[in-house]
Design goal:
With 236 residues, the protein is an alpha+beta fold. It has a single domain, classed as Jelly Rolls (Sandwich). The protein is built from 3 helices and 13 strands, in the order αβαββββββββββαββ. It has a 7-stranded mixed β-sheet with strand order 2-5-12-7-8-10-9. Strands 1, 3, 4, 6, 11 and 13 form a 6-stranded antiparallel β-sheet that branches. It is globular, with a radius of gyration of 20 Å.
Length: 236
Amino acid sequence: MYFRQLVIGLQFLTSTLVATVALGAEESLLHEFDFSGVPGQAPYEWLAAREFSLERHADNRDRIELYHANEALHVRVKKPSFGMVVHELDLPGAKHLDLDWGVSDYPEGASYEQGVDNEAIMVYVFFGHERQSSGEMFVPDSPYFIGFYLCPPGPDDVDEPYAGHHYQKTGRYICMAHPEEGQSVTTRIDLEEEFSRSFDIPYVPVISGISIEVDTTDSKNDGHAAAFIRRLAFYP
């Protein structure tokens, strides 16, 4: 009888602990975007309702097509293009970023290691509200940022902070994984750690914005690319 009561007690404690952990994880969520969309609402309307702005070629449907399918926002690039879907926010205390995303078609020849700064999808995280000098006359100033992207197996190393052609002091680009085309991957990013090892400043500015970007302007396969994102979430 004693051992039976002990087992029942342990089962109760275990179930209570699991529920508490799950509740704690739910409460720790700071900000989330679920990109599965809303039935009957075009993705452009869905993004506008959530205060995303379409920059550069992102609002040119002859170049970049946005659509919802399989509970994800898909980005299909039809010709050499550069587009950004931008959202400003202010998230004190945000230290981790979760992404559920993937690539359906990699742009041929894209590689930061080899100087071809292109990608099928990149999620930018901006740090701070103060714009830093780009160092170039015709390139606009920007807050510090890190662009997280997916890349095929090849020259770009995973977790390597690359400097691009622009924003060499204030921007870095990091490949997070080498998924196969069509594969969905979940990525957990320690934002403080990535910022600290990318920039030589003694503090980490507040998260001030995000952007979903695609660039195929220098790709070899006529600028074709495709990618998708299901979820973007910030945690402490």
